[in-house]
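Dataset card, provenance and construction

Sequences and ligand SMILES were collected as paired inputs. For each pair, a complete structure of the chain with the small molecule in place was predicted and serialized as structure tokens. The example below shows a pair involving zinc ion. Curators did not alter the output after generation; any descriptive sentences attached to a record were derived from the structure itself.
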Amino acid sequence: MDANLRYLQGACFFCLAKTNKTWCDHCEHDFILDRPQCPICARKSSSGNPCGSCLKHQPFFTKTEVLFNYQYPGNHLIKAFKFNSRPELAKNFAKKLAHKLNAEPLPNALIPVPLHKHRQQERGYNQSLEFASCLGNLLGITVNTSLCRRIIDTERQSSLPMKTRKNNVKDAFKLRYTKPFDYVVIVDDVVTTGSTVNEIAYLLKKSGCRRVDVWAIARTQF
Ligand SMILES: [Zn+2]
Ligand SMILES: [Zn+2]
């Protein structure tokens, strides 16, 4: 295992200090996001106003909530979560995000970004679904896995150059029925360009949803 992905019971994931939590309070300051961000897409925005990209091409989702930027050291947590199947991390992420949401109105359903069935079989689980299930339990929101399907096994977004990522997700998803919910939240593990969640948000809006938001563990900053 990568030395950076070590995980010891009773020790902070990052600094190995003794703690009964996954990471200690000191390390949390280094990666949990508390800087001003674009309220729509969660990119850095020093003013806290919508970023240039969202003003130019308004996404189909209204708001994005993320816990941290996908950069050192938080990205190591995501890697441990994704590739070493650490369900206890999903619970930790969910608790932190639920706390951050605080007084927000809650959606009618959570929709985890689906994996193609081949990818799901290969990996054994869908990390976005793990995260969504923990959030659903904590907040009392239904997790819906039947509405949205990934019908094309698109290549892993992370292995593609930025330019081709956007077109890659077009037509990759399909909804099984229309007029599903009034207000839904798409749950993803890491938001990169935002094109995947925007494609799903587009389909949800087209099918009659009034509002679609995005909740994710982390976001890359481009
Ligand atoms: Zn620590
Ligand atoms: Zn933005």
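Derived descriptions for this record:
Residues 38, 40-41, 43, 50-51, 53-54 surround zinc ion (ligand 2) (CB under 6 Å).
The radius of gyration is 17 Å.
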